[in-house]
Amino acid sequence: MTTRPDLLVVTDLRTHFTTEVGVARAVDGVSFQVGMGETLGIVGESGCGKTVTALSILQLIPSPPGEILKGSSILFDGEELLKAAPARLREIRGNDISMIFQEPMTSLNPVLKVGHQIEEALRLHRGLSKSEARSAGVALLAEVGISDPEERYDCYPHHLSGGMLQRIMIAIALSCEPRVLIADEPTTALDVTVQAQILDLLAKLQDRHGMALLLITHDLGVIAEVCDRVVVMYGGQIVETGTTQDILTRPEHPYTQGLLASLPGSGDRDVRLNPIPGTVPSPVNWPAGCRFRDRCPVAEERCAESVPELLPLSEETTRLARCWRVGSIGGPVEGST
Amino acid sequence: MTDRRRVILSALLPGFPQLAAGRWGGGGLSLTVWLAFVGLLLTRWARFAAGWGGPLDHKIASLTVVAGLIGAWGWSLYDVSNPGGVKQSGVSQWSLAARAFRKNRIAVAGVLVVVWVYLIALVTPLIAPHDPAAQASLLTARMVGPGGEFVLGTDDLARDVLSRILYGARISLSIGFVAVGISVTIGTLVGAVSGYLGGWVDTVLMRFVDMVISFPRLVLLISLSALFDTNSILMITVVLGFTQWPGTARVVRGDVLSLREREFIEASRALGFSRRRIILRHVIPNVLSSVIVVATLAIGNVIVLEAGLSFLGLGLLPPTPSWGSMVAGGRDQLLGAWWMSTFPGLAIVLTVVAFNLAGEGLRDALDPRLRT
Amino acid sequence: MRTFIARRLLGAIPLVLGIATLIFFVVNLAPGDPTARFLNPNTSPEAQEQVRVNLGLDQPLPIRYVRWLGALAKGDLGDSFSHNRPVVDIIQELLPNTLLLSFSAIGLAFILGILLGILQAVRQYSLLDSIASMVGLFFYSMPSFWLALMMVLLFSYGANVWDWPIQFPASDVQDIEYAFFSPVEKVQDRLMHLTLPATSLALVLAAGIARFTRASMLDVIRQDFIRTARAKGLSEPVVIFRHALRNALIPVITLVGLYLPFLFSGTVFIETVFAWPGMGKLVVDSILERDYPVVMGGTLVFAVMVVVGNLVSDVLYAVVDPRIRHD
Amino acid sequence: MTFDAEVASDADGKSDVDAKSFAGVNGGSGADVLFDVQELRKYFPVPRGVFGRSVGQVRAVDGVSFRLHRGETLGLVGESGCGKSTTGRAILHLIEPTSGRLVYDRQDLAELDRAQIREFRRRAQIVFQDPFGSLNPRMTVGGMLSEVLKVHRIGETGADRSGRVQELLEMVGLHAEHAGRYPHEFSGGQRQRIGIARALAVEPEFIVCDEPVSALDVSVQAQVINLLRDLQKDLGLTYLFIAHDLAVVEYVSDRVAVMYLGKIVEMAEAEELYGNPLHPYTRALLSAAPDRDLKAGPRRERIRLSGDVPSPIRPPSGCPFFARCPHPGKDEECETASPLLEEKGPNHVAACCKDPLPRDGG
To answer: Which residues 290-319 of D are in CB contact (within 8 Å) with B?
Structure first.
């Protein structure tokens, strides 16, 4: 594994929401790094805090009710984003770090032409004139694989299909050649064949522009397809990280193992699926100790009292898991797959 | 506070323990009702006692006082002796809404005002300082300013403005209540049938609704009320009721249309439920919340409309103490007796604001979008 | 777009026809005899009959209906019973006053309401928001005739008593000496006369519009594309005014159509309070006088204005919202 | 599962009777056929124009035929808008089909009277996708279930019924005390279980599962899939399993039909279809699905489709897949002639005019 300079370093990120029933600790101490040109996947089920993590990086959390707690740190190329002035933050958004979202249908402004929405960032961050921005915008549409870019440029979003709109979102995100692209469930709302097109496109563009890609998804298949490294989240925390290969073939944390066992694999139809029992607890009252304890097949008494920090599995510091069994045994937990 | 002390306290001052616990909706209501009605009994005992043998409205007034006292006392005691309201069963949408509503202090205040306006209207014969129709001396008591013997002054016929406003409340509120009752019933039925059946029934009904809605409501009302020669409370109520329903019908139809697409309705059809059962048991209960909101907001609307008609001289005629005609009566005396128009108008505003607050609070509390 | 307008126009024809029918039957089927006011109890039956024939009331209802519709198609609304003039003439004389009042009121209402609504939404939960909400609710709950009286009390009579620098006239559209004024004075005079009626009418509407705009704006601000705009690094004013506002105003436009019936109801009161010679006052007076042709004509004009207003708001809707356009 | 091949060898495969013959291929005639769907069509009008008259039709389902056998699971896959959900609703007469013959247990559904329709509703049920929209928010779970029992006169007394409600809840993995709760008090997975219990209340033999797990998280999805499979085993249920997730469909289905633009383009036994897809669309679909099996070695070459699905309002006249088809041999015939399902392998039908290409490396 090559070492790449870390471009984005998130340390102990905590984002909490005030709700009627209490404080929801949606993201609760998350740390990870993304290197230049690297693709990091964040995977987890709904309510695990992956989207809030992504939104926190650019501070797009609606506040109130959301709040990023003191002590959290998000370093972009050495600069602390959480301390950046609003004006500086706006310079970074869409220029150095950009984002694409899950629902292309609702993520574009329905009353503005798509061309206009592409131009905005170009004119703001690159200071292009209207005509320069237009030709740059048309070129971008061509680059993301839209046929008849000149024509599509003057369309309104409702004229275009979901796949097309997601391409346009990508064009907008790439317009200022960002160094980090955050993609939050970019293909969840799309059909399989279109999903494949979009994933191919992202991979191609990443190769070409060398940006770092932070891909958030619930789909392990998507992770397998595009990511170098994976962060697995559960209950607002990271439970395991490692290379895609390691995570998918040698999962260490019982949650990751359960997640993989839940998938109907190819072939064996006679084998019963082995789902994780129960449901995700509420972020307003996570269980004390290990948050996965209630659903964990190998939970012990000490899991109710406390939970370790992410423990390294070997000398490699990139392979970590948050489980007592990893630390004490010093090796992999017996697989339940 | 121990349970025993709470029980004793609630027997003496019903609602106080609840109020102290921060539940000032129920607590505040029963405490104020208790204090006010006890005070009323102390100061107006003779009238209260005479009420039982008096005319119907007087009887109702005395009955209201008794019922209010028993109600406040009983509720508070019951509530204190059943702490927490332990329930084994689930939490229904209604109790969720009630919970959300209680958190909305302004809306709760609106409901309190509404309830109080109704209570005052009911006990008016006991509390009104003067007979609303009685004229004091035209020489000494004509257009006397507020303060003194006549708290809100007298009008150009030397009648007590406060008493007339109190009696006017009964008229406005009953017209509002009954007219909205009529319009909501018609509107819900038309809306539900139109939305659920669809097709040409829907087309015809909705064309008609469009037509009625395109009419300036007041112009329609004036035509109807003037042409039907109706200055009676009954007729104006009926006219208002029968011209108000299209709005409700539209809202209900919209709700039904979206409900029809919901999968639980489809599931009911898949299970072979009859159309009647689906409409009555599955569709109507789910549009009920919007109907309640529409009805609450419509009461305020109807009160303003009735006042407007009376103001134009097309509704209730002068001897009847209607808020609208009182404002109209003061119009020519604006320079000399500003209170004649101002106070009845304020009464309208206060009542309508309370209804609107309650209605908007209900809308927020009942809005299913805010919950999953 | 043109076909869209044509379609809506075509659709409005049956609506107007239906309304005309409704008006005709409501007015003519109602009890009460329009001839009563022309006659005294001593009039001979023959003379009574003659009056009925003169007024065209001897014919059976369906025939009168067809005749009335036929005349209507030619733009003839019949003659007023009490004024002895064609209804069209009366309307022509009074309509401009009503339009002046309504248009200034609705313009004022929308400007005030939208501005306040946006301000409240952008500063949600602030003190300003809560105060504006409360005050708005009061105006929203106010009968416009009472508000008008209070305005007169304060800014006309009161201002006079307390010697305020500006005192507004409390009645009519222009001064008695209007004819002798210079052009500048004329404009001033008209404005002075317009201020109180238009404001009383506008404030009630503005309160409603502000509430609606605020809700709509808050709704839009929560949507995904606003997050996209922020993620692009756009400044907050650009996000609010270029991305949120237009979307938020789309539903507000429908209010133009929805509020017209209220507006015209309001003019009836305002014209009565301010002795403003307009359509609203005309209709009320004619009803009291049983002047059927004027009632029918006046009501029809109101209804047509509402239909046209709805049409305009539909077209505006299609102009502002690209999703509606059928081209 | 036995197939009989009465018409399989018919050389004249593209005649009018072809639809019937293919159904013969895929469904054995005889006692084990539960549901016979022939040439099902459902067109939705597109209202527009001055008086809202219809100016076109969405051909949501455009000539779909299949047979369901007792106790089997037929998977129906396809991308959004391909008509799979409409098919599921139309065969249950939840929406009136435009045309087609639906024979359930040798009874033509079009000929049933009201009482018989009620009886049919007891035998054939549906489970919906949306766990939030499919339960009446104002009724308790127990109320919902006992209403079903009451309507269908199952159980003599109230006690009978509440006992049965408990049984049902336990059958789907919930507890008896859940009966008093309202839908919003449950998680998505639990709500889906309630939906299944409601369908089971009438003791059906056939259930249309319309994307029953696609709104659920992976771990909960597996719980529900297991439940559905257990119920099938215990109660001998027949499923029509509609989903867009290829892996899920492969796991639960005995046979699989692939839909594209309102038509079935390929149908075979699950193993055969996934192992040896013949239609170019099926191939593209399968290869587009992300492959999470990293152990399986180097990834195979992917077929990437270009463009979007054509509008079902004006479907292409020839092969619906023509515009996006990557088959190198496609020609004018494909553009003009609509291909019919024909047998291309053992119990394996596909609607493609061309011979399937050999699979490279597959």
So the answer is: none
